[in-house]
Give the backbone structure.
Amino acid sequence: MAKKKLPFTEAKLKEIIRQYPTPFHIYDEQAIRDNARRLLATFDWAPGFKEYFAVKATPNPYLLSILREEGIGADCSSMAELILAERAGITGESIMFTSNDTPWEEYQKAADLGAIINLDDITHIEYLEKHVGIPEVISFRYNPGPLLKGGNTIIGYPEEAKYGLTHEQILRAYRIVKDKGVKRFGLHTMVISNELNPYSFVATADMMFELALEIHRTTGVKVEFINLGGGIGIPYRPEQEAVDLELVGREIKRLYAEKIVPGGLHPLKLAMECGRMITGPYGYLVATAIHKKEIYKNYIGLDACMANLMRPALYGSYHHITVVGKELLPHDRIYDVTGSLCENNDKFAIDRALPPIEPGDIVVIHDAGAHGHAMGFNYNGKLRSAELLLRPDGSVKLIRRAETLADYFATLDICQNELSLAAAAKKPL
């Protein structure tokens, strides 16, 4: 069972709030470092193992720099993510660029950085060659289609996903790029998301090892590395168990010894692109209760909304909630915990048993360290909140300031004069 704890005391949190008003996201640096080290230790047996952090999960250069210090690279899928990685000091083959429907400018930026380009479709070979040129190293994303039994609520069934090459296409693709002079080859897949069953990752490795051997046997291409993707889930619910990383490492090591070594592909580098499991459990959305409403149901309204964390609204996801200072009180009240958007799905929790909550109470939403702030938006004119870093020495660093109305209106020339007048008069708009 995953016990939901906070990395700060009530007194410390109130001190932080005095300087940085709610809502905000805050990340526990030491816990993130420790977790990254644990993943790397799990695969310390694998030749040249590399973790490429999925930048989309938490795209903040301060966090990327911390992970770079731990030996972790960047999994990028857009121009902005490539630039974030570069600014964080991550370049060269410490970047893996995997995207789909990709503009040529983004391929060019990846090439300029020396990133590994991972193509999503066989037609992208010609597109890349035309606009950027064929690099020395290239990788392809594999979609196993109906070979994979079962689906996932986030990715779905592989045969219905827009990602990757079919089995027939991937064999053909390696022949094409080999003839075009590519010297080094990679193989990639991503078929699982937020999965807690450790054997799912073992099965993925088994599938990819078999494919690498088939590619070698039928095309003569010796795959240099396999990126097994990410998808390691986190126990959002207290009753769930975290993925047993050590089991995953042991079982993949066994498969490597049974298949890759006798198959003539050793030393074969392994890689992953986890995002959620690296930072997810160690980020928190801190908000304040500002309204209490009792009609057909009981509602607690926060100063945060789904613009700060949209997973519950988008996926119906569970995020644990702590009412600070009331942890030991009976959870004998049933609330919908909501935000202020003009959308009825703007809810962090539905029919959640919690202690009595009053306006002014501090509410912490757990496991918001990945796909939280990153998925923010400005619907209803809502502004994205600040991001803070809780340092190992207990100090707090602002790593992204909160948006202002000036930011929101910055692309609308028609509003600039009104903003200037309001600022000069020091009165609200």
About this structure: Residues 213 and 240 are 36 Å apart (CA to CA). The two ends are 49 Å apart (CA to CA). Residues 198-219 form the longest helix (22 residues). The chain has two domains: 28-278, 281-408.
